[in-house]
Amino acid sequence: MISSLKDTVTLNNGVKMPGFGLGVYKMDDDITVEAIQTAIKNGYRLIDTASYYKNEEAVGKGIKESGISRDEIFITSKVWNDQQGCENTLQAFDESLRKLDLDYLDLYLVHWPVSGKYKETWRALEKLYADGKVRAIGVCNFQTYHLEDLLKDCKVKPVINQVEYHPHLTQEEVKAFCEKEDIQMEAWAPLKRGGVFDEPVIVELVEKYGKTPAQIVLRWDIQNNVITIPKSATESRIIENADIFDFSLTDEEMTRIGSLNKDERTGPNPDDY
């Protein structure tokens, strides 16, 4: 478990990835540049984007203008569904790299398990990894059976499975499988866009610890050893989201939050891809 914003998690290929970062889903360009500069100024070192977000240029600009050395920042992007397939993915990666204005990526992910395509896409990621264009490769939104299928004949095991993860969607089966296979879980929509803040146990813990509902939920993520990338565009919220390392939830409190699970999604169900 990470104990500060600077701490890293060692992935199954030995690469060290920050355990907490900034997501930039659906951020406009100007906001993205400012949010990244704000996050980096306040100690963030993990930035998560995707070709689908259409703000890779702004991400690259924000990183360049931050004044922080490239090798101190961990940058993730993803290949979108209509870019999948082996050759298409190689082209999509080059396009992302061009937009980000970078020489390499730290992590490249398959955004969704598109049926009949994701194994071809994975072959492209393996080539990019072998060619040294990316330091680590992984997947997003893969269910256990997708992972089992991929692991049957892949040459490189995914380092990450980034999934929707919050107290209403605890993904216990997927999490257990990833732990068994040494695939690190990462959470998107960790706050369910505020949809868990009114839960009585969250309200109770806000009172007990003097923290915000977001901080309680993000602390739960971290204590579950899940890398977390909450999205925010405002400086106060960016700082607040990362202010979760000065308290700990008890085992009982962790269990109570986990028991809020409803298998309830804000995004698509991977079974439909």
From TrEMBL:
Transmembrane segments: none annotated. Residues 25-261 form the NADP-dependent oxidoreductase domain. SUPFAM superfamilies: NAD(P)-linked oxidoreductase. One of its GO terms (molecular function) is oxidoreductase activity, acting on the CH-OH group of donors, NAD or NADP as acceptor. It comes from Oceanobacillus bengalensis. Keywords: NADP, Oxidoreductase. InterPro entries: AKR, Aldo/ket_reductase_CS, NAD(P)_OxRdtase_dom_sf, NADP_OxRdtase_dom. The keyword Lipid metabolism does not apply. This is Aldo/keto reductase. It comes from the Bacteria. The lineage of its organism: Bacteria, Bacillati, Bacillota, Bacilli, Bacillales. Belongs to the aldo/keto reductase family. The active site is at residue 53.
